[in-house]
Design brief:
It is a single chain. This protein has 160 residues and is mainly α. It has a single domain, classed as Tetratricopeptide repeat domain (Serine Threonine Protein Phosphatase 5, Tetratricopeptide repeat), CATH 1.25.40.10. Helices cover 71% and strands 0% of the residues. It is elongated. The N terminus is likely disordered.
């Protein structure tokens, strides 16, 4: 583990311990509590890093600490108002907690700044469909939204 390397003087090729990468690997193995520890250590190495904070929020969401996840996403948005991942994560926490109207501006902000790529292609239709359902514009969600919803399971609302 990265903390072991730091304790005994080992480090990565760049001269720093890769807690963030370790956290990603752990979360991929569904070791969410361990990943959270690694992300917290990464945050100590790089205080205020919005990417690390978003991963912490995702980990909180996966272990059911949704209030902490919401606070963390809001903290990210104070630092970076354009953070698509934070808008997306916060929006779906709000929807799940029955606060759909609060989620609408976050879904719109996500869609305005949505990242490109394969992972985003799964989240964009889901966000469009959810926004359409919340605003009553179901016709605008189109077939793309329905395709994005197929196969979606619990815990996949967060972009990685």
């Amino acid at each position: 583990m990265a903390w072991w390397n730091k304790l005994f003087g080992g480090s990565g090729p760049s001269g720093r311990v890769e807690y963030y990468d370790e956290g990603l690997a752990l979360i991929a193995d569904d070791k969410v509590h361990e990943a959270l520890t690694s992300f917290r250590l990464a945050l100590k190495e790089s205080p205020g890093d919005v990417v690390v904070l978003q991963q912490i929020a995702i980990a909180y969401t996966r272990i059911g600490m949704t209030e902490e996840a919401e606070k963390t996403y809001r903290h990210v948005l104070q630092k970076d108002t354009q953070s698509a991942g934070a808008h997306y994560g916060l929006a779906f926490l709000l929807v799940r907690s029955g606060r759909g109207p609060e989620a609408v501006p976050h879904l719109r902000a996500f869609l305005e700044n949505a990242p490109a790529g394969k992972e985003a292609s799964e989240h964009v239709p889901h966000a469009r469909e959810t926004l359409a359902g919340l605003t009553g514009d179901a016709g605008q969600a189109g077939q793309a939204g329905q395709a994005g919803q197929a196969g979606r399971s619990e815990g996949q609302d967060e972009p990685t």
